[in-house]
Design brief:
By secondary structure, the protein is an alpha/beta fold. It folds into 2 domains: 44-196, Rossmann fold (3-Layer(aba) Sandwich); 214-365, Glycogen Phosphorylase B (Rossmann fold, 3-Layer(aba) Sandwich). Helices cover 39% and strands 15% of the residues. It is built from 14 helices and 12 strands. It has helices at 3-7, 21-44, 70-74, 77-86, 102-106, 121-133, 147-156, 185-196, 214-228, 252-265, 295-302, 314-321, 335-338, 355-365, and strands at residues 60-64, 91-96, 111-116, 138-140, 160-165, 175-178, 237-241, 270-274, 289-290, 307-311, 326-330, 346-349. The protein has a 6-stranded parallel β-sheet with strand order 3-2-1-4-5-6, with helices on both faces. It has a 6-stranded parallel β-sheet with strand order 9-8-7-10-11-12, sandwiched between helices. Strand 11 (326-330), helix 13 and strand 12 (346-349) form a beta-alpha-beta unit. The radius of gyration is 22 Å and the shape is globular. Residues 1-16 have low confidence and may be disordered. InterPro entries: Glyco_trans_9, LPS_LOS_Heptosyltrfase. Keywords: Glycosyltransferase, Transferase.
Length: 366
């Protein structure tokens, strides 16, 4: 298949089979849950924005983001930095689901404890007791569309609750912002603070960020020397990640064509592939490649690259957070919502999403 054939969208109308009984039952449950949420919202919830000052003694803050996707967790970093800068005496704790992401969040200023939600009943009860003992002054749901986040906020016992107001918001909030669909997912969380908190004034950050510690940077330096073996002493290095989930992933032959185009556009550049695991097959056995499990070490390794390119994925956002000029490739999602947020980061989509143009773009940026 040629690149031109790859970029063409099939516009033929296909017939869809009737939904299975399982799909019908799931849809029925979703509809009933939605009706139940709206009934609760009308009785107790928060359907309109509510901008209020924070209590002057707000010092203990809990952010609830029950999600395992790396990109979604990195989307918290502008909001967390905004909170820390605006409330410098506060300690910000979080509840997430992936232990692998704890060190990334704890590298941020103001962040204290990062709790992990376990799936076992005893684990959940133990976490709830621990959280309630902290007597949080403020709990935040940065998404507005997660029933798990809302339930955790409700059970936290926090005396102030901040989130998005909408017709399905059944949780009584003390501070609420209207939901906007016109901004990047990460920036909506910053807007939540600015629109729902009247005082203090919010200092807003608009880029992703992580700050690996010295141990992570030293480990990344050793991996860099082993992987590149002196190839990058004077040559520019372009890192790339060729995987993504579902329709976001570009096919293998696209990346092979990109490597050929990249060698023509920037012959001196060294290409290094980031792999999702040790057992993953590289795009080219001739290129250096590496799999790094610890995310802080991976971020520190990426930070040494001159450029990074990837489809919409967690590593793309991690590269942007590490400060690497990143080119994001979008064929199934919108850069408006998911672009890499960082210094000198850009996105390519539509007709611009070809191996040749991507290679020329990267070469011009070196």
């Amino acid at each position: 298949m040629s690149v031109a054939e790859f970029c063409v969208t099939d516009s033929r109308v296909s017939s869809h089979p009737a939904p299975s009984w399982g799909e019908r039952i799931r849809q029925w449950r979703r509809n009933n849950r939605q009706r139940f949420n709206r009934t609760l919202a009308r009785l107790f919830g928060t359907s309109r924005a509510k901008r209020m000052p924070l209590a002057p003694d707000t010092r203990r803050i809990l952010v609830v983001r029950l999600n395992k996707r790396l990109g979604n967790i990195l989307f918290l970093t502008p909001m967390l930095r905004s909170l820390s800068a605006s409330l410098p005496e506060a300690r910000i704790d979080l509840v997430i689901q992936s232990p692998a992401q704890v060190a990334l969040l704890q590298s941020l200023p103001g962040v204290g404890q990062v709790y992990i939600q376990r799936n076992s009943l005893f684990g959940l009860l133990g976490l709830l007791r621990t959280i309630r003992r902290q007597r949080y002054d403020l709990a935040i749901d940065p998404t507005g569309n997660s029933a798990s986040n809302r339930m955790s906020m409700a059970l936290s016992g926090a005396r102030q609750r901040l989130g998005f107001a909408n017709k399905d918001q059944w949780l009584p909030l003390t501070h609420a912002a209207g939901r906007t669909q016109s901004r990047h997912q990460a920036l909506q969380a910053v807007e939540l603070l600015n629109d729902a908190i009247a005082e203090p004034e919010i200092e807003c950050f608009d880029t992703l960020a992580v700050f690996p510690d010295n141990q992570a940077r030293q480990a990344a330096d050793r991996i860099w020397q082993t992987t590149l073996a002196g190839q990058a002493d004077e040559a520019p290095v372009i890192g790339f990640f060729a995987r993504a989930t579902g329709r976001k992933q570009l096919p293998r032959h696209w990346w092979q064509a990109w490597i050929i185009a990249m060698r023509a556009a920037a012959p001196s550049a060294v290409l290094v592939e980031i792999l999702p695991g040790d057992d993953a097959r590289p795009i080219s056995d001739e290129l250096p490649h590496v799999a790094i499990k610890a995310l802080t070490e991976l971020a520190a390794f990426m930070a040494r690259c001159d450029q990074f390119v990837a489809a919409d994925s967690g590593p793309m956002h991690l590269a942007a957070a590490a400060g690497v000029p990143t080119v994001g490739l979008f064929q199934a999602t919108s850069p408006r919502d998911y672009a890499p947020l960082g210094q000198s980061c850009i996105s390519l989509e539509g007709k611009r999403l070809t191996p040749e143009l991507t290679a020329r773009t990267l070469a011009a940026r070196l």
